[in-house]
Amino acid sequence: KEGEEKQEEKKQTESKEEAKARKEAEKAADKEKKDKEKAEEKEKKEKEKKKREEDKAEAKRKKDEEKAEGKKAKSSGPAWPKSRWKAITLALVGMLLCIALGSIGIASYWLDVVSAAMRSFDESVKLHCEALREA
Fold it and tell me: In this structure, are residues 87 and 81 in contact, taking their beta carbons and an 8 Å threshold?
């Protein structure tokens, strides 16, 4: 009986050890599986992040290209001021300048006319005086 009990005890300890080893192996396999899943998820997140960054860069590049095309289109035409008030002020200043230059031109014309008239009047007075002296 004692030999049987010892053998049974031996079997139980062996089965306990086997169960313990099996549990440890399962634990290690679960840990390895979790680590693998974490690594895959991390890789997936990195790929998504990289894709988002690439999409962002692409969108920025397109926006920059559109901006450059807009600048090219603007540079080919007249350079208009960006502010409405600047445009109005420039127009008013231009009108006043034209009026001033026109006024100066008109005044200059009339001064020429008056000076020519005065010259011709002076000449006619001289001629008249000479005619009176001769007479």
Answer: yes
